[in-house]
Amino acid sequence: MKTDIQIAQEAKLERIRDIAQKLAVDEEDLIYYGDYKAKVDYRLIKKLTHKEDGKVILVTAINPTPAGEGKTTVAIGLSDALQKLGKLAAVCLREPSLGPVFGIKGGAAGGGYAQVVPMEDINLHFTGDIHAIGAANNLLAAALDNHIYHGNSLQIDPRKITWRRAVDMNDRQLRYIVNGLGGKTNGMPREDGFDITVASEIMAVFCLAQDLQDLKDRLARMIVAYTFDCKPVTCGDLKVQGALTMLLKDAFHPNLVQTLEGTPAFIHGGPFANIAHGCNSLVATKLAMKLADYVVTEAGFGADLGAEKFLDIKCRTGQIKPDAVVLVASIRALKHHGGCPKEEWGKENLAYLKKGLTNLQRHIINLTRKYNLPIVVALNHFPTDSDDELKLVFKYCAEAGVEVAVSEVFTQGGLGGVELAQKVLEIIEQNSTNKQEQKREFSYLYTLDKSISEKIRIIAKEIYGAGSVVFSKEAAKSIALFEELGYHNLPVCMAKTQYSFSDNPRLLGAPEGFELTVREVRLSAGAGFVVALTGEIMTLPGLPKIPSAELIDVDANGKVSGLF
Predict the structure, then answer these.
(1) In CA terms, which of 117, 364, 456, 493 is 20 to 30 Å from 556?
(2) How far is the CA of 511 from the CAs of 14, 327, 356, 362, 430, in angstroms?
């Protein structure tokens, strides 16, 4: 079979103005980046307030293997399938970070015959949004150190600086550094460090802001340090929120591209899901909801991370009510959660599969009972899946009372997702026509009036299955400070391994009664949430022994190879 990049390079793309016309977007609202990419003016949302919002379909997954579960591929294929069924659909995805592209995971533009294109551009610099966010992050860091150098009138304690620098690359060497060396004219020596750009609070702010004024207001509220008497110092105190907004104003317009089958695709913003909230920008989603009848969007990693944050943070901020959820799973991942060794994933083994179904079961319970949402399980098909294994999963889903469909979008594109699309349309229609007592009404997991520690406990116990939550002394101290400062009513963004319901990546299946340890709690006042860090989660990943960068090349004519 052809590689992803070969399929993408051979595709015949439609002009982006023609893609925009499918959504009735006029040229005056487009900002062209060549023939196949454009930004759509976010202010178009306000022109369309009279239009009814389209249906929102969230694509999430069980806890993945290191290779991922194919959520992006399914989301793209599902939008193509809806288009094949005559529906006006659009897909909303995150922008890929260069760190994973050159690291271990590779690109994030889908795969096989369910891709967004131009794939090379999307996986590399695209329209420069992430670079703009990195520049804004580092301007704020420079302004902070410059303020200290020129007299420190705000009385910032250099030991209590919380703002870090950013780089869009996996580089463990930069996690903890000392800078300002070389004498008085080169700044004040202090400990510092870098986060990957997509973990910057500015990325979260960018993805949750509803317009430029909201963006500027949120940037101003970001806390960068504390004074000697423990008072917060904000970006607004440094008076650079206007400059940061200027750097981001063009990037703030959502990016429009297309799938291999010409379905409109909005790709905008890209916060990590195991560190940040893992969803594309709110303005892109809300714009798509005004332009399309069905909006397919994806939340990163498993439903315990991406879906929980999409539902409790993004939906709450944007007042979005999802109409259906697609839960992606695969036979190989289910066997992995049943304890099957990697080298045996391709061999039939019903015992491992049956044991691993506990992971799928908990995600189904969480989505249907905790959030009260209708779902369809999408079983990503692999050639090694046996008929008996497929039957076992179908039997389990029938007993659990949820629909299931085999997804073959990787090999067949939209055609391989038609059955899935039909089942999604059916559950949306069924739920909308149900009597009030039978209708599923989406609800949040927790109310914002609860304490920070209580919200963390609710997520840990209700979604993860934890028996208890332990807070380090540093985490408990931070929570007390944030609540004293009046930030008790913010939602919580959990930073946790994607491979397990617990904070231990080796604890597979559906563990229960374990102890979850919160080692650090950070305040993202501009984004509007509190971040609880667990386990060994790093905000700047490192490269593997053999990074994907070693496999990527470009020939004398500029043709790229090795990018998937």
Answers:
(1) 117
(2) 48, 19, 11, 10, 33
